[in-house]
From TrEMBL, chains A, B:
Protein name: Gamma-glutamyl phosphate reductase
Entry-linked Pfam families: Aldedh
Major localization class: cytoplasm
BP GO annotations: L-proline biosynthetic process
The family this protein is said to belong to: Belongs to the gamma-glutamyl phosphate reductase family.
Chemical reaction(s) catalysed: L-glutamate 5-semialdehyde + phosphate + NADP(+) = L-glutamyl 5-phosphate + NADPH + H(+)
Enzyme category, top tier: oxidoreductase
NCBIfam families in the cross-refs: PRK00197.1, proA
SUPFAM superfamilies: ALDH-like (SSF53720)
Physiological role: Catalyzes the NADPH-dependent reduction of L-glutamate 5-phosphate into L-glutamate 5-semialdehyde and phosphate. The product spontaneously undergoes cyclization to form 1-pyrroline-5-carboxylate.
Signal peptide bounds: none
Molecular function, one GO term: glutamate-5-semialdehyde dehydrogenase activity
GO CC annotations, alphabetized: cytoplasm
Length: 426, 426
């Protein structure tokens, strides 16, 4: 196994990867969900069996990262501690424990001519996952693709190349032990960026690409891709405090959505407050609470009329995903203005209203164009684990195919299966 | 209303179209399914009310078509006879009569923390439909988009520009009479191809493009698009006669799949016959029947051992969508070889097996990578009307989002709606 840029003919290498994946995906249709779950358990066992090797090779990545001046946050995400290795194995077992998405009959009916028609859930086929530094994504992505009966081509970041290579070898070992095709999960064995360019052109072989990483990675993938891409863009999430909001709940949800974890896509980035909730003192309570938690508030003119010591917001603030202890604040005159603001500046990820009005809750849920519309709970719940999907490949900000937290189910498609007894069109 | 190339600033024109569509799509979220159905009925009435105007302007298209040397088949597709105008109105009413896809709760559950989570069906938003000559597509596309609560931007072919313009005016009239935003359906008022190029770049405004037309149109759209495209490629459909096939049924299904209508995407283009069905005389019966119906058979070497007077097939034949009274014929040694052939040469559209073996039927249904896997019935049933979808926007050969016949349901997406009572992440 090589993980240096020694592949001479990248196009041929990618064609071969694709052909192997396609063959494996076809072969996978002949295995049951139990077979695939068995492989997931075997992969978990292989990860634990290879703990030392995994940590030794992870140390090479960490050394290289230090030498290359990676930030301590990046180095932290890269490190495979004992607890993280246990978690990788545990995640694999949790995915195995989920219901099999494949073969499920979504709907069925008997047509007037007697044909029995089924809409049946099937694997997508070949899935390309492109990701950045965290090596656990290698096993997460492999496990979700396998659970859904897909062949996976995984392209990790160069910072984690040694760690990813060992994890991929464990995946292969687990597949082999379960009798599944080992090409069902392949790691791209070069960090040459041109390989990604080739893979993204492979219409008819690779069915979809899911890039996991920062906005620039995703934009670069979309630029180059001829195959469909499911995008997981940024989360510019909003919390809107309605006129009728319960003040305690408003303080608590704003606090949690902003401060529980700031570096994640489902953290709140803008707070919208109805003028009535500014006038009745709720705004001041929220602002005091957030400032006490060390959050910088960037406020519009109206908010600064109530709280003159707040820093003024610029127009850029409305569109910014801070991923930090900063929040933008705007006072709105109406629910309409709040909805309009979110639809204009939001990223269609997760947006919450705090309200006691049933009508306002329903209008918000219907009219905000977002993957996750929340009423009276923190944006931080927008997450595949929280939704009970078992694991997630990410949170789609796309509207087609999959929206919001994506689990193994979202890595499937359907086919129509019709059973007749000789019917022909009259 | 202008339908000549007199728009000076195409970019500004497209931006304006997009902005209007986006605003209309947002406004549509505040109308009920009954409101949208009411508009569909009003549009049907407007079409019938404007029958004379429609036929007068259609005559301009027909005159221009004759002057430009359009084929008689093309002229036929373009013509709006009385019967076709009645059918347009009837289709609109049929779409109105379908259940409302919007607001349907796909799944719901109460999370352990008490949050009530719903996966709710919602409109996609703004849909761009690009189509060729048949003017009835203007109202079909408008009605399906509206049914699903979407704003539509329609781009028809230049051959039908006068007819499309009148139909679009009727749509507008119907929307207005129902109190819906008239920008919910807009016709691109220029046949300048550059307009399509601009529209296909409008990420964030236009959510999806569905091109309806020949392969070259679709390829050109995919080439240029930054927005997602749902593709309706050709139908290289197969009928496979298994070893155990009932001979009468084999003859009847092969006949119907090939000859019922040859110019359509769900007509059979290749016949695969198990060696046993060649040896037992079924092949000869099928071949005699097809030749009697005037079908040219292009056969592989093995078939020509049984029927030496057949014309030999070349490798190109396996990948050809004839859309004509021609069929390719290949003898296979096994079900595996049949599946392999279809997965290699097929277009993932519609493929049928004729068999009495339950095991072979199931393997075919599972292992053939196709949108529509048929057991013992004609490929001609692969159709939105036949499936009871009410109407169809086309037959998707894509695997993401929508596969096979696409109805109004497939022009929707979902959002997650969560109802809490103050939950925050611990």
């Amino acid at each position: 196994m090589t993980h240096t840029n020694t592949i001479n003919d990248l196009q041929a290498y990618c064609d071969d990867l694709g052909r192997r994946a396609l063959n494996a995906s076809r072969a996978l249709t002949r295995f049951s969900g139990a077979d695939r779950d068995h492989a997931l358990h075997n992969i978990a066992a292989a990860i634990l069996d290879n703990r030392r090797k995994l940590q030794a090779d992870n140390a090479l990545d960490l050394d290289a990262g230090r030498a290359n001046g990676l930030s301590s946050a990046m180095l932290d995400r890269l490190e495979l501690t004992d607890a993280r290795i246990d978690l990788i194995a545990e995640s694999l077992r949790q995915v195995a424990a989920q219901p099999d998405p494949i073969g499920r009959i979504e709907s069925g009916k008997v047509l007037p001519n007697g044909i029995r028609l089924q809409k049946r859930r099937v694997p997508i086929g070949v899935v390309l996952i492109i990701f950045e530094s965290r090596p656990n994504v290698t096993s997460d992505a492999a496990s979700l693709c396998l659970k859904a009966g897909n062949a996976a081509i995984l392209r990790g970041g160069k910072e984690a190349v040694h760690s990813n290579t060992v994890i991929a070898a464990c995946v292969r070992e687990g597949l082999q032990a379960a009798g599944l095709p080992t090409d069902a999960v392949q790691l791209v064995e070069t960090t040459d960026r041109a390989a990604v360019g080739h893979l993204l052109q492979m219409e008819g072989t690779i069915d979809v690409c899911v890039p996991r990483g920062g906005e620039s990675l995703i934009r670069a993938v979309v630029e180059q891709a001829r195959i469909p891409v499911i995008k997981h863009y940024t989360g510019n999430c909003h919390v809107y405090i309605d006129a009728s909001a319960d003040p305690d709940m408003a303080v608590s949800i704003a606090h949690n959505a902003k401060t529980h974890r700031t570096g994640v896509c489902n953290a709140a980035e803008t707070l919208l407050v109805h003028q009535a909730a500014a006038d009745n003192g709720t705004l001041k309570r929220i602002a005091d609470d957030l400032r006490e938690a060390g959050v910088e508030i960037r406020a519009d003119e109206k908010a600064r009329q109530t709280l003159p010591d707040l820093k003024p917001a610029s127009d850029d603030d409305w569109a910014t995903e801070y991923l930090d202890k900063i929040i933008a604040l705007r006072i709105v005159d109406s629910l309409d203005q709040a909805i309009e603001h979110i639809n204009r500046y939001g990223s269609r990820h997760t947006d919450a209203i705090v309200t006691t009005s049933l009508a306002d809750a329903e209008r918000f849920a219907n009219e905000v164009d977002t993957a996750n519309a929340f009423v009276n709970c923190s944006t931080r719940f927008s997450d595949g684990f929280q939704y009970g999907l078992g694991a997630e490949i990410g949170i789609s900000t796309d509207k087609l195919h999959a929206r919001g937290p994506m689990g193994a189910d979202d890595l499937t498609t359907y086919k129509w299966v019709a059973y007749g007894d000789g019917q022909v069109r009259p």
